[in-house]
Model the fold of this input.
Amino acid sequence: MKKTTGMDRNVTRNWRPATRALRGGTWRSEHGETSEAMFLSSGFTYDDAQTVADRFAGEAEGMTYSRLQNPTVAMLEERIALLEGAEACRAQASGMAAMTAALLCQLSAGDHVVGARAAFGSCRWLLDHLCPRFGIEVSVIDSTDNAAWEAAIRPNTKVFFFETPANPTLDVVDLEFVCGLARAHGITTVVDNAFATNALQRPLEFGADVVAYSATKLMDGQGRVLAGAVCGSADFINNVLLPFQRNTGPNLSPFNAWVVLKGLETLSLRAHKQSENAVALGQFVEPRVPHILHPGLASHPRHEMALRQMDATGPIFSFDLGSRDRAFALLDALELIDISNNIGDARSLMCHPASTTHASMTPEARAEMGVTEGLLRINVGLEDIDDLTEDLDRALKAAGF
Ligand SMILES: *Cc1c(COP(=O)(O)O)cnc(C)c1O
Done:
């Protein structure tokens, strides 16, 4: 394969993000295809025995087996790393495979993790249920309280784990402070950047160590495949993550990798336009509802910080109608916006987190993180803003607002 369009890091480093999104990491075969080739092959063949011996010894580059490396998946990994500003990236089978690998590859019994209280339901499950089973201590804190991060540090604290903005309460974490604090104590920060993606926020610029993704969300952006990724230094990816991944096998299918490669071509355009639509729709909803959580609106307690950390505030916001009955009445009156618990899609989608994404948590844990019975979360898509406004207007009226 000819590495003509972007595997040479000295060339691609100078490309600007829009160029990287289209061309970064492309390997062209002898056919000179424009779109990346899809290598649906689990194994590879060799011209002679020494070649394969050299590859297995790590002394020669080249494919051996798709659990170890696959050309289509490698293109995606290189492109995400370039967009993230990371030295290396490894794709994962899903966002949760990425979060699990990013934590378990580096944690052992006796270590301590500090995690954000407001998080995706399954991320909380990793902290609340999985880590303790393996003797990993966990503290869950209010991630918007800088003093709480500092107070939670113990001599055995190994990892800080959080998302920003957080699902579904849109908590914004002070990246510079929290990553700086971690650095000062030799703690590794793992940031779940699914809500923003590198098109809107690059945590490594604020001192984060590891950025983990659900690429199912904005990166695919069209609701097609599950995918995930972990980005970090070459040392972390090659020496800490890779031994875990190669031997446990949470690998991304080449087909799914190819779909996400196509998604990355338009990621920045979609992320910015969806953010713009989300601010417009938020401004429309705000005067009508008792409470709105939207980092793109001045009423958000960390609006200024969100604007400093992010290029735009993303497609997702939440609002509270006070009761489950009213929230369900609104959902049932929607004609355009779909009831769906996915996010990052180019279609507008809405869900009731307490009965879906966060249903497995106890009512007390939900209440503590602000997932109330009346809370609705919306992912704002690329539809015409006037159609979205009309649909929400009708649904708000049906719910009594
Ligand atoms: C969706 C999501 C995940 C999990 O990703 P999957 O691809 O569904 O496994 C993790 N974190 C956040 C913030 C998410 O939104």
Summary: The pocket of pyridoxal-5'-phosphate is lined by residues 94-96, 99, 120, 122-123, 163, 167, 192, 194-195, 214, 216-217, 226, 228, 343 (CB under 6 Å). The two ends are 60 Å apart (CA to CA). The domain at 2-264 is CATH 3.40.640.10 (Aspartate Aminotransferase; domain 2).
